[in-house]
Amino acid sequence: MQPNETPRRQPGERATIHDVARLANVSPATVSKVLRGLGAVKADSVARIHAAVRELGFRVDPLAANLRRSRRSIVGLIVPDFRNPFFGSMVAHFERLAEGSGYRLVTVSSAEKAEREAAQTEALLDWRVAGIIMVPTDGQPAAEASLVDQKVATVLVDRVPDQTDFDRVGVNNLEASAAVIRELAALGHRRILLAPSHLVQTNMRDRVNGAKRAAEEAGIAGGIEVLASGPDVASASDTMAARFDKGDLPTAIFGLHSPATLAALREVERRGLAMPQDLSVVGFDDIEWMQVTHPPIAAVIQPVQALAEMAWAQLMKRLAEPAEPPYTVEVSCELDFRGSVSSPRA
Amino acid sequence: MQPNETPRRQPGERATIHDVARLANVSPATVSKVLRGLGAVKADSVARIHAAVRELGFRVDPLAANLRRSRRSIVGLIVPDFRNPFFGSMVAHFERLAEGSGYRLVTVSSAEKAEREAAQTEALLDWRVAGIIMVPTDGQPAAEASLVDQKVATVLVDRVPDQTDFDRVGVNNLEASAAVIRELAALGHRRILLAPSHLVQTNMRDRVNGAKRAAEEAGIAGGIEVLASGPDVASASDTMAARFDKGDLPTAIFGLHSPATLAALREVERRGLAMPQDLSVVGFDDIEWMQVTHPPIAAVIQPVQALAEMAWAQLMKRLAEPAEPPYTVEVSCELDFRGSVSSPRA
DNA sequence: CTGAAAGCGCTTACAG
DNA sequence: CTGAAAGCGCTTACAG
């Protein structure tokens, strides 16, 4: 016997917890309790509530449900650029990790601009997110003060600062970069071009420093040249083209971010150079296209899945224990020396 | 003379509209009116309210602000795969378009699975989004019934169905694909492999059909072979490798989605074939790496920025006028015949 | 020009 | 075991 007072919503109007309560002949508070699996409720009522939920197609509004708490069950993710497949892959991993965690993921990008990163961070804070995972554009979060002030759990990934009170999850840039230089030096290279993006990024600095240190140990410090560009393909291309125009090229190029590696290849291609005989090329980041060039490009492979998993785990830990001291995780890169590297022409 | 009763929030606690009202000596309703630029308010009060907002660092909670309306000022964006740079680029454009529109963008991915697409759609509907922009995995939205039922403004992009009551913005797949075949036929190709992903996608079907029609007109219909794979790189690679293993290769491959083009290149590379002499290659979608291979890959360039702009404009129009009949936009692709295409070996 | 009151959809003490 | 009441942060009629 269904109570007739149930005001059937228009089709298109979503049922509320009150509709469910009315149909099940209980109070909204009881419905809420059952839906969240709390407290003791008579089996009879439980059954009626479930039936009503089914009949009305009721689903809780997660935003309204969180209104009374100071924090919503949302995690914000800020990446520098959606167009870079390395970050695309990272986003995909985080999305998968968020599923079933009870948190919704809201992903935004900073377009590699500190100013936009700050604005995006503030926008996420307006949403009262529970936590933020971020790949900072410049190694340090642009809206640091707000994050600290509002005590939002924050995990920095990939581009991590040297000094910080935030949790951080990164790769061993110094060592990976040094290993590449050691290999090139062993093959006989004496002049190597490093192509980083903005050196304000600590990971770029670490890669350059690791390379320089290894070059020193190999006695070829004088042969290291650093060519910094912007973080996007357009900027890296312009910078690289200008360098090739100047002539007097090195025997190897180590692209410290994938746009620079792409730019180096484009110049090799455009100028009809032979790779690896005229020029060896190695790239930091392993992007899909690197295995379809001829020859395939040697790469430092960043373990993006491990990065995402550690970062997510760390955020969950931080949400559970906000007072713990900041935590640092460093994961190792793998090196794959493919056909784009050989001894230089005698 | 600041009223002393103002209960200063803890640092980290965000000020509410009540805090602002108290500090400015007005009611919350008046603050709300001023912040939204509505109604007439005494200049004096306005000044005090602005001062209070500044002092407290107040920012409205956009989620709470929308609670009384049936729809929130959020637009949901569903793409099939973040790792595909074509969609990465699309997301970046939509993010830029959303800025300053008064809507927040929440982007999720379906991972190319209809089931996940449906779940993601329902999750967005739980948030009471005002509208949804989607690249459907199978050409038709998996959660169509819910979208229709809840009357949420929906725009389908890129992979658009033939028949639909939703707005749609796509490219002229039939014609672009036909143009490629006409060019290949003119160069003397008689056997061409088409490499689409799942043919449930209408854009894949259109590309195949456009190619077949042009082949018929050129009298080479018998030489068209269709090799469908899954939508990801792994699946496309396996499928392509198996095809190469069988031998008896065509003289040209037309990759109808970028993973297939990548897979074709990998096989050309692995088997030491000469491109374009042994095999010409053309790809649908112009991805950055296509210009750094040797030779660069001929491509059908989808105008992703135009797609995004038209789709966004259409959604805004739909939100303003929900009752208008469904609208269809078709934008044209550009063809760039690069070095990967030539006449087949005699 | 302004404020008290009710309400959005839910949850949270609290009283019974 | 259950429900009435208050509250989350805002907005929306409405009365003055």
Give the termini distance of chain A in whole angstroms: 93 Å
Q: H/E element string of chain A?
A: HHHHEHEHEHEEHEHEHEHEEHEE
Q: Can you count the helices of chain A? A: 12
Greatest contact between two chains: A-B, 53 and 53 residues
Q: Order the strands across the largest sheet of chain A as they lie in space.
A: 2-1-3-4-5-11
Text of the CATH class of the largest domain in chain A: Alpha Beta
- The CATH superfamily of the largest domain in chain A is identified as Response regulator
Work out the helicity level of chain A: 40-55%
Question: Which features does this protein show?
Answer:
3 domains, 346 residues, DNA-binding, Rossmann fold, six-stranded mixed β-sheet, elongated, 15% strand, 12 helices, disordered N terminus, alpha/beta, six-stranded parallel β-sheet, homodimer, 434 Repressor (Amino-terminal Domain)
Task: Give an overview of the whole structure.
- The structure is a homodimer of 346-residue chains.
- Chain A is of the alpha/beta class and 346 residues long.
- The first copy, chain A, folds into three domains: 1-60, Orthogonal Bundle (434 Repressor (Amino-terminal Domain)), CATH 1.10.260; 67-171 and 304-332, Rossmann fold, CATH 3.40.50.2300; 173-302, Response regulator (Rossmann fold, 3-Layer(aba) Sandwich).
- Helix content of chain A is 41%, strand content 15%.
- Chain A contains twelve helices and twelve strands.
- The first copy, chain A, has helices spanning 17-24, 28-35, 43-56, 62-65, 85-98, 114-126, 144-149, 173-186, 202-217, 233-246, 258-270, 304-320; strands at residues 74-79, 104-109, 131-134, 153-157, 167-171, 192-195, 224-226, 252-255, 280-284, 298-301, 328-331, 334-336.
- In chain A, the strands form two sheets. Chain A has a six-stranded parallel beta sheet, sandwiched between helices. The first copy, chain A, has a six-stranded mixed beta sheet with strand order 7-6-8-9-10-12, sandwiched between helices.
- In chain A, β1 (74-79), α5 and β2 (104-109) form a beta-alpha-beta unit.
- In chain A, α5 (85-98) packs across α12 and α10 (233-246) crosses α11 (258-270).
- Mean pLDDT of chain A is 91; it is low at 1-8.
- The interface between A and B is large, with 53 and 53 residues.
- The structure holds a DNA duplex (16 and 16 nucleotides).
